[in-house]
Amino acid sequence: MASPPDICIRGAGIVGRTLALLLARERLNVALVESTQPNPAPDVRAYSLNGAAKALLQDLRCWPEPPAVTPVHQMQVWGDQGGQLNFGAQEQGVGQLNWMVDVPALEALLTQAVQFQPQIQVVQAPVAAPLTVVCEGRASQTRAELGVGFDITHYEQHAVASRLLCERAHEGIARQWFGWSAAPGLVQPQAEVLALLPLGGEGGREVALVWSVHPLRAQELMAMPAEDFAVALASACEHRLGSMQLSAERAVWPLQLARAERWIGPMSGSAKQAFALAGDAAHSLHPLAGQGLNIGLADVAELVRVIKAKEFWRPLHDIKLLRRYERARQADVQAMGLVTDGLQRLFAQPGPIWQNLRNWGMRGFDRSGPLKHWMTQRAMGQSADRADR
Questions:
Q1: Per the confidence metrics, is the pTM higher than 0.85?
Q2: Is the pLDDT of residue 378 over 70?
């Protein structure tokens, strides 16, 4: 990149690389700051991507091929007293509800695309630019250095994640259970959310696990021998996929609802430089709805749209310009945060009255017709109705 950068992106994860590729396509010079930290342990997570995210990545020619992509045809959700929800692609008039995407395959495609884009320079340290976009994740050091507050609500839950090979094929069904379990040292059972997400393509037998449990229960699960853990999991999911065997290491992390107090602003010490936050640096949600990366990629799409539509005379650091991005995204993120937080809190309430209420609500919602269809379409993304059939 011979010319000085127009935009510096701090954070070279999926959100940062996608943003860099989209901006480079608009003939903007991009400096992409890559972490110099040693590579962490392999990422056992798998991302649920909706139609809008798929269209964005396909446009960049970075959509993985099977078996790194697994279509989800159905989602089944069980409550704690007979409540059940079923979401089917057929009733929505589409071929798939969403897609489970293997993280390493997607990251490899984005990395390769960046290498072949001459207007992107990968750097090891931040450089000055009219606009800096912070995509460093929820523990962003740059956000802290900019003095941007991060309003955090800590859930009394940790996520335990892994990969498992199952006796039975997953059939393209994402399965989720809301329930209760005993945690060591606690008198009362604690709420938990267990999700098994299909991997390995059509007909596969591998699943990604996200098990949201009390921190003490998480410690117990992490300390179990692999065989005991698999047995406990098979019991918790009612043996729906038969016996299970761990195919990856377990990982654990605390869960939170968080949002930056502002997403844009001037860079300190310069009147001609500004910043914007995107992805987990701007927000963090409970994983029960599987919308984290979808929301981050929606941030990227909106920021690029705002930049493309700007008046020719406005510079990239113009705060009024960046406020268009902030206003457009904050409302959607807040709405999704209210939904996930409300569900988490509803299913964490003990007692038969709450139990009856939430399961009655699940059964009613499952039969609600238009409301269920509208909510499902929103979760699938605005372009879900145009997804491949």
A1: yes
A2: no
